[in-house]
Design brief:
The complex is a heterodimer of chains A (about 110) and B (about 110). Chain A contains no helices and 11 strands. Chain A is an all-beta fold and about 110 residues long. In chain A, the strands form 2 sheets. In chain A, strands 2, 4, 5, 6, 9, 10 and 11 form a 7-stranded mixed sheet that branches. Chain A has a 4-stranded antiparallel sheet with strand order 1-3-8-7, with no helix packed on it. Chain A is globular and about 40 Å long. The termini of chain A are far apart. Helices cover about 0% and strands about 55% of the residues of chain B. In chain B, strands 2, 4, 5, 9, 10 and 11 form a 6-stranded mixed sheet that branches. The chains are: A mainly beta (about 110), B mainly beta (about 110). At the A-B interface, strand 4, strand 5, strand 9 and strand 10 of A face strand 5 and strand 10 of B.
Chain lengths: ~110, ~110
Amino acid sequence: DAGITQSPRYKITETGRQVTLMCHQTWSHSYMFWYRQDLGHGLRLIYYSAAADITDKGEVPDGYVVSRSKTENFPLTLESATRSQTSVYFCASRDGNQETQYFGPGTRLLVL
Amino acid sequence: QQQVKQSPQSLIVQKGGISIINCAYENTAFDYFPWYQQFPGKGPALLIAIRPDVSEKKEGRFTISFNKSAKQFSLHIMDSQPGDSATYFCAASLKGSARQLTFGSGTQLTVLP
């Protein structure tokens, strides 16, 4: 019972590099979400997906790209990392018939 | 902008005491209000949730009080325990919006033994 997993759990990168954070869920949930967590801001939605090949912007999408070719995977790419993208990133998923979102363990990203 | 405002930012309570965290929202179209609990190094997990058609929901030691007219809701933790020490987030969502969650800024709760 893997649930929802994220990789890597920790990542250090440099400004300007491309970074991809992976998210995988085993429940076949239709909805998937990416949030970033910063002190004083709670969790803010970056992108979400209602199904494979359907994605939409959240509150803070600038500098991020997502794709969803398979239901179970929802990678988040930082095309050219900036220091302001240093954060903890959480992936979440939700069954289409329920309200509860289930969160992964997070990826802590440091951009130097 | 849809916002959920949460207070206090941090809270210290003695074991056995009552912890109270408050949230206020602006968008009257919100129709689902969950609270999430997060331990260090972990992802948030649903604790309890309420809909605006009820004024209170209780699950064990955790109670949500909801005041629709004031656009406020709160989490009460009765008989607080050191194991309750965590960060708590209130949130709100709209029907038909992929149920995107708009989160409050979080409250770090410390329960002293």
